[in-house]
Write a structure and sequence with these properties.
By secondary structure, this protein is α+β, with helices and mostly antiparallel strands. It has a single domain, classed as 2-Layer Sandwich (Alpha-D-Glucose-1,6-Bisphosphate, Chain A, domain 4). The protein is 23% helix and 46% strand. The protein has three helices and seven strands. It has a seven-stranded antiparallel beta sheet with strand order 1-7-6-5-4-3-2, covered by helices on one side. The radius of gyration is 15 Å and the shape is globular. Pfam families: Polyketide_cyc2. This is MxaD family protein. InterPro entries: Polyketide_cyclase/dehydratase, START-like_dom_sf. It comes from Acinetobacter bouvetii DSM 14964 = CIP 107468.
Length: 143
């Protein structure tokens, strides 16, 4: 299985960083011009972007990627998977939150990825790693 990992320290308490990264709309800022739209709410009325929620990603009206939140442990972990994509065999995203101290949080973002086409996975993971590093740097300035 191919995988990549990005680690980033945020100068904010774990609760604040988790709240930021648990909202689908946050990724519009982090990964612009890619747009993220929630298309299905979680059953949890207090957290519509929680477990079972589905978001679509893309540009303009074309948003071919769908991700479903599968695990959400407040202030600790978020997991999601890509659904309904014939080009992707396996995609699992894991975002882990670890308090370094009361005003600093280490975020570890891991993606496992396997495309259906050979030799594509490493290229996709390299692009994702670059985008996540840039996106996290942008977000770290907002907290």
């Amino acid at each position: 299985m191919n995988a990549m990992q990005v680690k980033k320290e945020f100068n904010a308490p774990v609760e604040k960083v988790f709240e930021l990264l648990s909202k689908h709309a946050t990724y519009n800022v982090a990964f612009a011009p890619v747009q993220v739209v929630r298309v299905k709410d979680s059953a949890d009325l207090q957290r519509p972007d929680g477990v079972g929620s589905v978001r679509r990603l893309g540009l303009g009206p074309v948003k071919p990627i769908q991700e479903e939140i599968t695990v959400l442990v407040p202030n600790q972990r978020i997991e999601y998977k890509i659904i309904k994509n014939p080009l992707v065999k396996h995609h699992l995203g894991i975002i882990e939150f670890q308090p370094v101290d009361e005003n600093k949080t280490l975020v570890t973002y891991t993606i496992e990825f396997q495309a259906r086409a050979p030799f594509v996975s490493k290229l996709v993971l390299a692009q994702l790693k670059s985008a996540i590093k840039l996106g996290f740097s942008k977000l770290a300035k907002t907290v």
